[in-house]
Specification:
This protein has 241 residues and is an alpha+beta fold. It is built from nine helices and seven strands; from the N terminus they run ββααββαααβαααββα. A four-stranded antiparallel beta sheet has the order 1-2-4-3. The two termini are 56 Å apart.
């Protein structure tokens, strides 16, 4: 079948450019006046949609022109109302195309095309969700693990949370990482001044009595709620990268 006028099949239902139909019918009347007359009784959003179509003028510049996408029913009606040989030819052309459009083969082809589009859209959405999940997972894991608690925890307990959530680290390796990265003084379990100023640690001091009755002071390093969030997010983000 020779193409008389281009039909757009990218929309849910086939549509025709009003300007291209206007040209195919050989109308001499100004386009805007022609469309105003022929669109009487039709509803925008149902029978036609307002769009812009581009054209190149004599000086090479690009110019936008008012156009409309017409449903096949509206296009056939306009062809009929033109009462010309070209109008009858275009109308018959649209009727023949609709017959092909509604064959079982074409219906199946459209269904497959829609399915492929849905799959592509789902893949794109899934990629966005995965990226967002990678970005947010450390914070979400922390929220689930410790419920954003402000209670200070022992270093070994934070190491357990890290290990439970995929970081290959135990208490010794966690201490090593803290020392190598300047959060705990080398050769000890005492936080550095910088780490204390950041509010990542607290030192709990207790006095207990020895067996001989003499008191002894103990110091325990704990990671604050702020420090828990800081270290868990930092280490899990690194592991995922």
């Amino acid at each position: 079948m020779n193409e008389i006028i281009r039909v757009n099949y990218e929309t849910e239902q086939p549509t025709v450019s009003a300007r291209e139909l206007y040209a195919a019918l050989g109308i001499e009347k100004r386009f805007s006046a022609w469309f105003e007359t022929n669109s009487q009784g039709f509803l925008e959003g149902e029978d036609f949609t307002s769009v812009l179509s581009g054209t190149v003028v004599n000086n090479g510049a690009h110019r936008d022109l008012q156009d409309y996408l017409l449903t096949m029913d509206m296009a056939k009606h306009i062809c009929l109302m033109s009462r010309t040989d070209k109008g009858r030819q275009c109308r018959q052309y649209f009727i023949d195309l609709e017959k092909v459009w509604n064959t079982p083969e074409q219906v199946m082809a459209r269904a497959l095309k829609m399915a492929n589009r849905s799959i592509a859209r789902l893949k794109a959405d899934n990629a966005v969700l995965l990226a967002e999940n990678r970005r947010m997972k450390p914070k979400e894991i922390f929220a689930d693990a410790v419920s954003a608690s402000d209670n200070a925890m022992l270093v070994r307990d934070v190491a357990k949370i890290l290990r439970q959530n995929g970081a290959p680290i135990g208490e010794k390796r966690f201490y090593q990482w803290l020392r190598e990265n300047g959060y705990i003084c080398k050769g000890s379990t005492v936080p550095t001044q910088r780490a204390m100023e950041l509010g990542l640690f607290e030192i709990v001091v207790r006095t207990v009595e020895r067996g001989d009755g003499l008191p002894i002071e103990t110091k325990t390093t704990r990671i604050t709620g702020k420090g828990q969030q800081y270290f868990i997010n930092k280490i899990l983000s690194r592991e995922m990268e």
